[in-house]
Design goal:
58% helix; alpha+beta; 4-stranded antiparallel β-sheet; globular; 12% strand; 5 helices; single chain
Length: 180
């Protein structure tokens, strides 16, 4: 049993999960350290004129797009629930599904990055400001959010790609393709 569990956790394409999670988490924490230090105060660094700034504005105590309840408790609980779900998918998915493992790793690494902020600061440090000509601004975000979005995109792509590839008989589990 121990060997079987070890094979489910490491080896083959599953290692891509660990690599993706580590890269997203490390980049998130490094960039937050460099660009989103709450003690630095407010600032604005133009990276690409009329399109991309790095900004220091404090922290975001809410969820994505600054929506949802304020306070860390709800988001910490939701993150642990999400990480448990990622763990279940990781352990039960077919070992050859590379996009699935990379997607789960990106989502997990991003979730961990924001979880660290919420547990230490009670809020998330956001600092990337995408905009169009200083007028239309996307909500400020961070590398963890980017990893989560990329991961969800990969998971959706893998889901639809697999559904097209497998056909109705594989998707339902019976040869006729209909319901039992």
């Amino acid at each position: 049993m121990a060997a079987s569990l070890r094979q489910r956790i490491v080896g083959g394409r599953r290692n891509c999960f660990w690599l993706a999670a580590t890269v997203v988490l490390a980049l998130d924490q490094l960039t937050k350290y460099l660009f989103a230090n709450p003690e630095a105060g407010a600032y604005k660094i133009t990276v690409v004129p009329l399109f991309l700034n790095l900004v220091g504005h404090g922290t975001n105590p809410r969820g994505a797009f600054s929506l949802g309840p304020e306070g860390a408790t709800f988001y910490i609980f939701a993150t642990f629930l999400g990480l448990a779900l990622i763990g279940w998918f990781f352990l039960t998915a077919h070992p050859n599904r590379l996009p699935l493992y990379v997607g789960l790793g990106c989502v997990g690494g991003g979730a961990m990055g924001n979880l660290i902020d919420r547990m230490i600061l009670g809020a998330v440090r956001d600092f990337i400001d995408l905009h169009w000509m200083e007028r239309a601004h996307w909500p400020i975000f961070n590398i963890a959010d980017t990893g989560i979005c990329l991961g969800v995109g990969l998971l959706l792509w893998e889901t639809f790609r697999r559904a097209d590839k497998d056909g109705p008989e594989q998707a339902t589990g019976n040869p006729g393709g209909g319901s039992s």
